[in-house]
Every structure is written in structure tokens, then in C-alpha cells.
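Retro notes - structure team

What went well: the batch runner handled both jobs without manual restarts.
What didn't: labels got mixed up in the shared folder, which is why I'm recording both outputs here explicitly, each with its sequence directly above its C-alpha cells.

Job 1
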Amino acid sequence: MKPLSQQALQLIADRFKVLAEPMRLRLLNALRSGEHSVSELVKVTGATQANASKHLGILTECGMLGRRKEGLKVYYFIADELVLKLCELMCSSLQTQLEKKAAHFPARRLNSKSRTPSPDPLPRHRSTQ
């Protein structure tokens, strides 16, 4: 495979920068189920109308989302399905990394009422002072 040019690397970095904003990821996640109007996306994500519109515009400008207008409403949808595959790959990678890190800790059961860890079933050594 041929090395990437500086211009290509910059384009790739710019694409990843778009995904580096949690609100944009929330919007993409909400749109996984299909197209939604701005007001529906505001309700689902908890964003303000202005904030959601700003991020939807950025996602649309870079080609990840598409939009259509119906009367006074604007509907957004995933235009580049590969962005969802990229997110799935990242989630899978994070899950694997977290599972490896979690393997270094002893299993703890949560007390269902208080949601605090149950007493450690392993005996503790007393200090000999």
C-alpha cells in the first residue's frame, strides 16, 4: 500500500475531528434507528435547538448526514453508513480494552439495595502492630 500524502492525512484527521465531539456522537447514535426531525433529535439528545442545529450542520457539511425538508420541518438521516461501522469498530475496540483492564481486578458483587460493593469474600490479613 502506498504511503498517504500530507493532504490525505489532513483530510483523515479532519474527519476524525468531526467525530471527537460527544454531542455529534449522540446525534449519530439517535439517527441509527432512521431519520428524525430536529425537534425529535433535540428531545432525544437533550440538546438545545441551536446546539443541535449547529452540530447537525457540521455532520451534514462533511457528508456523514443528509437532510430533507418537508414543509417547515427538516429531517436528518445517516448519509454515510460507513460512519456507523466506524463507531461500531471503536465501541468493540473499547470494550475489548476495558475487559482486559477489568481482568486485573477481583470480581465484586454489588449489594442490590445500597448499590455498594458487598464485603470482600477474601480474608484480610491483620496488621501485627
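Job 2
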Amino acid sequence: MITRGRPSMQMMVLVEPAEAEQKTAGGIIIPDTAKEKPQKGTVIAVGNGKKDEPLTVKVGDVVLYGKYAGTEINIDGKDYLIMRESDILAIL
């Protein structure tokens, strides 16, 4: 049931991005200004999907997504991404 002021998450996924790399493989420390946005994260919540199109990702899955996928949101001081399931490139 959809209530007023509360959007439906039917085909949406809530992802907690992984931490950005602190060092390169060679041991060089990366400053905060040069860090790239992570493109990997853990699924925190999923919508119900559509009747004829259930979601394939589950809570706890580690996923890869595009660099500009989803919308950044902040809940209780933690950063999350909310995105469509179609924005997910792979489940690891």
C-alpha cells in the first residue's frame, strides 16, 4: 500500500557504498581530494518488484554499479545510494 508522502520502492534498491581506497597497490596514500567514488557496495534494502518482474538482488548482496548511478542520500549520518535495479551492473 502506498501512503501519501511515502514513495514506492517497487524497483528500487538501497545500497551502502564501500569505503574509498586509502592506498594504491604500490602503497601510495591517496589524499581525500583525489579519491574516486566507489562503484561497489552492499544492498541494504530492496523493493517488492512488480508482479510480473521480481527483483533479482537480495539484501546483503555485494553489487557493482555505474559511476553516476543512483541518488546519494544521507540517513542518520550515513551515506547511501538509492537506485533502480537496472543501474546495477553485476552481483558479486
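One thing worth noting from job 2: The domain at 12-18+35-91 is CATH 2.30.33.40 (10 Kd Chaperonin, Protein Cpn10; Chain O).
We'll revisit the folder naming next retro.
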